[in-house]
Structures are given as C-alpha cells and as structure tokens.
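Justification of resources, computational component.

The compute hours requested in this renewal are based largely on the per-chain cost of generating structure records like the one below. Each record pairs the submitted sequence with a full structure-token output. That output is archived, and it is also reused by downstream analysis tasks.
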Amino acid sequence: MLIDLSEQAGLPAIQDLEPGEARAIYDLRTAALDAQPQIAAVEDRTIPGPAGELSIRIYSPITDDVLSPGILFFHGGGWVIGTIDTHDVACRALCAAACATVVSVEYRLAPEHRYPAASDDCFAATNWVAANAAEIGIDPAKLAVCGDSAGGHLAAVVCQDARDAGGPSIAAQALVYPVVDVANPGRPSMIDNAEGYLLTADAMRWFVEHYVPDQNQRAKPRCSPLLGDLTDLPSALVVTAEYDPLRDEGREYAEALVASGVVAEHIDVAGQVHTFFTQVGFQDAALETVRTIARFFEQHWR
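The structure output for this chain reads:
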C-alpha cells in the first residue's frame, strides 16, 4: 500500500534531489499521518548541545506515578531528512503503549553537519536526560533508547558511547531497521531489495555520501556500530522489515550482540518495507511493532 501511494503521488527518487528538497517531500508525506494516541502532555524545549542548543520534544504519559520510565527517541531519515515532527505520531504511540516519558531529539542533519555531529548530539541529549530525569518526570534507573533507520543507528551508537564513558546507564535499546554497517553495503538484502521497496540501494548510497563522504571513516564503530565492541551493551530488540535493503545488517547486528553475550531479540516483520514503523494509524504492523517495543522495554525496566 505504501509503495502504491508513493507511485501514485509521482514522488521523485530521493537521490535525484537536493537535501532541502528531500526534506520538504518527507515532511509533507508524514504530515498526512494524524493518529493521536492519548497521552498526558507534550512539551517542546531546548537543551544544551555540543554545538549550540538542541530542540527536544517531551511526551508525558497518563499515569499517577511521579516518575515514569524514560525513552530517548532518535528519528530516522538517513541523517539528512526527518524531524521530531515527522515522527510525532510514532512517539505519541510509544509514550502511550509503554506508559513512559518519551524524549524525541532534533539532532543536526547532514550535509550541513556531517559525521559525527548526529551521534554527538544524541549522546549529549541522553546525558542531559539522565542528569535532569526527575525534573521531566523520568526515573533515571529506567532509561531506554529507541530509533528507526538512521535513528536506530544513533541509538546503537549511544549505547556504545554510554558504555565507553561509564554512563549514563541504559536499561534497553530498540533498533528499528537500523543502519549498522555503512562500510560493507553488499549484503543480499541490499541487492535483492535494491529497487521497488521505497528505500532503494541508490538512495542509501545518497544518504551515506551526505553523512560520511570520507570512506576511511566508514568502518569506525561510531559510523558502523556492527564493527565495534559489542560486549556489555544494554539488552536489545532489533526489528527489521522483509523487503528492506537494510534487513540483513539488522539481523547480523542482533546475532553479533548475542555472540558477544548481550541479551538480544530479532523480529523480521513479514511483508513490510522500510519506513513502515512511522505509519501508526495507517499500518497495523506499525502499531503492533510499537507495542512489541513497549513490552520489551517493560521487561527490562523491572
């Protein structure tokens, strides 16, 4: 259905666009999603970042508890497009399903801000949330990270950064069709699903070229977390889509986590393509995936 609608709309291939044009089209496409899960409040604010202020959006759940679990959410969009607005409905759904405070982060985008700007911003935001947890209604002992696509990449990197820095403590991570290895793009799913399923192999190359044009940097763990040290990381749920060029690297990441002694689960959502997660209210699989993530987090917040 998503593919049919995109074809009917006559949307140009993203690799044929300038970043600003791609952002505008992505914003318009996600603006059509109007599901509004019931939550208590939404607040926009700014926090200190490594290169200036960062915008965040705080979603508060309906609960009688003074403090709730917290989820740092990093939006997808290939490090080039996407905003806290494009993922607003997904964050509302996650807030409601997990009964948790969700903090969505507006990190800097490429090509204006290349690697590792996005990772630096997301780790800074995670540290800020941990340090100010009580003020925004979060129990700092129950903190998780989540993201889709490039946001899944950023969540994985934040977990490695937090381990290497000695904190903050992260109880669990949920990575939805994450980018975890930009140094080795030739996996079967990248070839088999190269065309016809919304995210194409050419588009993926376009995103990577904008974020990390220096090929010598692409094998660094903060660029390709699959190639880093995977020991002592938070428990992980990795969600992939059957018809997604990124499917195989997500599965490999889950397998590598398990091989490194990390509790990790992998779910491949049958019949789905990249971007399905943001279609809450439009795709049943999206809401079910949100609920699966919520259940996973709840198990690791106990």
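Confidence is low (pLDDT under 50) at residues 1-9. The two ends are 38 Å apart (CA to CA).
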